[in-house]
């Protein structure tokens, strides 16, 4: 599955969806679809606007992912306009570990960390985790 990492980019820059909409000229509801990764496919003109706004390359906004369960720390941080340092201080979790969760390079989140994140963000574990249905049967190539 290819992921669009707008929420991660916004978190890095401490921006709201409204900030990105104003900066790119893309409608707020469309920004929301990209942020929550509910858009079926990004338009190239939107990708161009995002790249200009964030001064980045398309590859900085896209990622191929085979994982079936996603840890959405970067999205939560973006919603609250927090840095990795803020979350580390608030949870007591080492900055290097926060970075692994943020970039989703951690092999699996520790339960004790999950509890700290839930307490910090005042949320439930389901707010931090997402099941990804990689490919349904209609999208498979014939053999």
UniProtKB/TrEMBL annotation:
Species whose genome carries this gene? Seinonella peptonophila
Q: Does the keyword Cytoplasm apply?
A: no
Lineage top rank: taxon: Bacteria
Checking PROSITE patterns in the record gives: HTH_CROC1
Q: Which segments constitute the HTH cro/C1-type domain? A: 73-128
GO MF entry, a single one: DNA binding
Q: What is the lineage of its organism?
A: Bacteria, Bacillati, Bacillota, Bacilli, Bacillales
Keywords from UniProt, A to Z, are: DNA-binding
Coiled-coil residues:
none
**Cell division as UniProt keyword:** no
Q: What name goes with this protein?
A: DNA-binding transcriptional regulator, XRE family
């Amino acid at each position: 599955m290819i992921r669009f990492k707008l929420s991660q980019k916004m978190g890095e820059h401490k921006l709201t969806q409204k900030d990105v909409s104003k900066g790119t000229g893309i409608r707020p509801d469309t920004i929301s679809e990209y942020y929550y990764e509910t858009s079926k496919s990004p338009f190239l003109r939107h990708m161009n606007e995002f790249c200009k706004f964030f001064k980045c390359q398309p590859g900085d906004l896209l990622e191929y992912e085979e994982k079936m369960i996603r840890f959405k720390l970067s999205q939560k941080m973006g919603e609250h306009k927090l840095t990795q340092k803020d979350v580390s201080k608030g949870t007591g979790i080492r900055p290097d570990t926060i970075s692994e969760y943020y970039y989703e390079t951690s092999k699996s989140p520790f339960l004790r960390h999950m509890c700290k994140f839930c307490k910090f963000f005042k949320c439930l574990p389901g707010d931090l985790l997402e099941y990804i249905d990689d490919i349904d049967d209609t999208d498979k190539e014939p053999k």
